[in-house]
Amino acid sequence: MIPRKTRRGGAQMTDLPTPLVSTAWLADNLGAPDLVILDCTTVQEETPDGSYAFVPGRASYDDAHIPGAVFCDVLGTLGDKDDPRPLMMPKAGAFKEAMEALGVGDNSAVVVYDRGIGSWAARVWWSLKTYGFDEAAVLDGGFKKWTAEARPVSGEAPEIKPASFTPRYRPERIVSKDEVHKIIEEGGATLVHSLSLKEFTGEAAPMPRAGRIKGSINAPASSLVDPETGVYLSKDKLAAHFDAAGARKSDRVITYCGGGVAACNNALALAVLGFDDIAVYDGSLAEWTADPDAPMETG
């Protein structure tokens, strides 16, 4: 029997654990009338010049997905099309339209997953949180764990139910370049670089300028999950990961990465640890390194 709880004006809802939900919970709740499952898979492909680009994982979805899951084109529908910066948070009207097209409404319970380490799912989860929607969780272990447990998959796209989504923007969850400058000058928050140590030090330089935002510390989002299972580390291990980096030395934490995706995975992990005052620098290094006057550090 599916547990129920009352939310949003008396509506009965599936009792969704957040911010992470287990594969066992999802298997038990498949088919719940208010449950929306979003496959947020985005894949990395090599380009002719030897670099790489991210593309929607629609082909993987069409091949096999969790039964009832709807494909979410994160790159195509959840970025601000009027902004030249990559994958910036869409405006309220565009986000409302995108969610309703996916069948996500005010009375939905949403589970998001991908086929990687959870960063793309975390981006969608953070976007929902930014627009005031809290009944969303990332599937712990994602599609990797689901299939490793021989759980059912489907190649059929489900019928999307009509939905009405009300965006309630929370500006404190997204910070701008100007706000990051202010933090560098005045303090008040910890800046967390979410990419690899080599990118943090400048040894690897995929962005126009090498290194990190001045004053930031390094907590790679790639270290949040068990590489064998894809499951997030225990709370004790996550706490040790962030403590070793110095990420929890202040109440407010600002995460960033290359384009605002891995940063959302760190935001998710911090939420698992009970942090409330978390924000993502949406422009991240794509914006910061394009400004020659924005202070950087290496080494």
UniProtKB/TrEMBL annotation:
- Looking at the record, the residues that make up the Rhodanese domain are 31-155, 185-297
Entry-linked Pfam families: Rhodanese (PF00581)
A GO MF term: thiosulfate-cyanide sulfurtransferase activity
What keywords tag this UniProt record? Repeat, Transferase
Superkingdom in the source lineage:
Bacteria
Q: Which InterPro entries match?
A: Rhodanese-like_dom, Rhodanese-like_dom_sf, TST/MPST-like
Q: Which Gene3D superfamilies does UniProt cross-reference here? A: Rhodanese-like domain
Q: Which PANTHER family match?
A: SULFURTRANSFERASE, THIOSULFATE SULFERTANSFERASE
Quote the protein name from its UniProt record: Sulfurtransferase
Source organism of this protein record: Hyphococcus luteus
